[in-house]
Amino acid sequence: MKILIMKFRNIGDTLLATPLAANLRLAYPQAQIHFACNEGCEAMLEGNANIDKIHIYRRTSAKNSGFLKRIKTELDFLAKLKSEHFDIAINATEGDRGAYLAFLSGAKTRIGFDGGSFASRLLTHKVAQNCEIFGSHTIEHDLALLSALSLTPRTKTISIAFDDYSEFFADKLPASFIHFHPMSRWLFKCPKDEIIADLLDFCELELGVKCVMTCANDAKEIARCENILRLAKSKPSAFLGELSLKQVAFLSSKARLFVGVDTAVMHMAAAVNTPVVALFGPSSAMNWGPWDNTCANSGYKAKNGIQHMGAHSVVQASWECVPCSCDGCNGSKKSRCLDEINTSAIKELIKAKLEKG
């Protein structure tokens, strides 16, 4: 049997789909499980024992190419999927593209969420997105697709594989440290730089714990992090755009604590079982809170405010407009709920988690 999982979203979404692959492996131990994802997300899947083959869609090059080259990219990708002769194709992405690919792949069993569109009619098994599923955590949302195969989730553990980078980081990491990742590709998910600088100073100067800051290899993220370092009175270590995703996962696994915003690296820290303090703004913790691998069910039941799930915590303003899922207040690309976040509560959580060990 061959099974295809498709998740054409971002890095964090891809990582959070790994429990779906794990459940399919448990249900069909002899099956070949393939995973199709966007280019740049494959690091979340490489080395995963539950995934036999990864199919990478060159989304960026396709979007930036001329019409004919884009058509060729699409046809080549479809041809590769079709050549695998899948028995089951699962579209774990809301949207029509995966439904069309499932149909064109030739898979007899085609599973996805019922979007009410024409493409949904091409699925043989549709899962209704009722209020309970739509409002659930992304992991539980994806696992709802198992019902189409009459399966019940047996694990909700997120997994990410990475090499031992001890030699690479030799003499570069403190013996004990907090991992800070204050940036996201969507800067409206990030508080103003002064807040992060203040938290760094609190950890290093008041608590006496070294901090290590990371960010993606993106000019805007690097510029913001450099400004944070200028604002800080302390001298944290920093890897600004220097590390691969696998190296970041290794670094995070060695940290005593992770502090950051709603981004893929936050989910990676949770996946390697490092306690997380996450600063949330426009995002819903119900859908995107850091998942604790030791828990059976999500702990994020409130609309906003401070919430906990196992070793992880989310700090979010208790405002009526939060979460709004908007790209900043009134399209400004800046979120006031983050710029005015309760730093005292964040500091208390950091201190409590470090004391708990």
Automatic annotation (TrEMBL):
<dbReference type="Pfam" id="PF01075">
    <property type="entry name" value="Glyco_transf_9"/>
</dbReference>
<protein>
    <submittedName>
        <fullName>Lipopolysaccharide heptosyltransferase III</fullName>
    </submittedName>
</protein>
<keyword id="KW-0808">Transferase</keyword>
<dbReference type="InterPro" id="IPR051199">
    <property type="entry name" value="LPS_LOS_Heptosyltrfase"/>
</dbReference>
<keyword id="KW-0328">Glycosyltransferase</keyword>
<dbReference type="InterPro" id="IPR011916">
    <property type="entry name" value="LipoPS_heptosylTferase-III"/>
</dbReference>
<dbReference type="InterPro" id="IPR002201">
    <property type="entry name" value="Glyco_trans_9"/>
</dbReference>
